[in-house]
Design brief:
Length: about 160
């Protein structure tokens, strides 16, 4: 089977992956919505790995083998018993092909395996309907008491 015919899998992000990921973030608004207000824009691709680093966070790429990444996400423990997913992104030219679902399923599994958490959390902009619908279809439910007018806080018991 040729590499392009295989299903992508999750692998730890490597330094070389960040140049591709940087190209997926076209402007300051997209940067803030993807990575939060602490990631400056513009940023240099060779600094992205360091800029995204957080204590205890694991960074993952969705890719076919050692090929270029087609998705990226991170997880970290925010509170005891709960692991948080963040900075989830799929390459713009690969969107609409089910890779977000694949990335999220594998990211949830990796996060739970690494942390032993019983709950997975994430945040999504309310106007990002496609992402919010994806997360709901995976079993995440909004937690209104932790949400804001702009952002749903969501949780998935595992």
């Amino acid at each position: 089977m040729r590499a392009e015919e295989r299903e992508p899998g999750l692998r730890p992000a490597r330094s070389a992956d960040y140049a591709a990921i940087a190209e997926w973030v076209p402007d300051a608004e997209a940067c803030a919505r993807w990575a939060g207000p602490r990631l400056p824009f513009p940023f240099r691709a060779d600094e992205l790995e360091t800029l995204l680093a957080m204590p205890g966070a694991a960074s993952w790429c969705l890719a076919v083998g050692d090929g270029p990444p087609c998705g990226f996400g991170q997880h970290w423990v925010r509170t005891p018993g709960a692991v948080h997913l963040g900075r989830i992104i799929v390459a713009p030219e690969r969107r609409g092909r089910g890779l977000g679902r694949l990335l999220c399923r594998q990211l949830v599994a990796a996060a739970v395996e690494a942390s032993g958490a019983g709950v997975v959390t994430l945040r999504v902009y309310r106007d990002n309907r496609r992402a919010a619908e994806l997360y709901r279809s995976l079993g995440f439910v909004p937690v209104e008491s932790e949400s804001t007018p702009e952002v749903f806080s969501m949780r998935l018991p595992v």
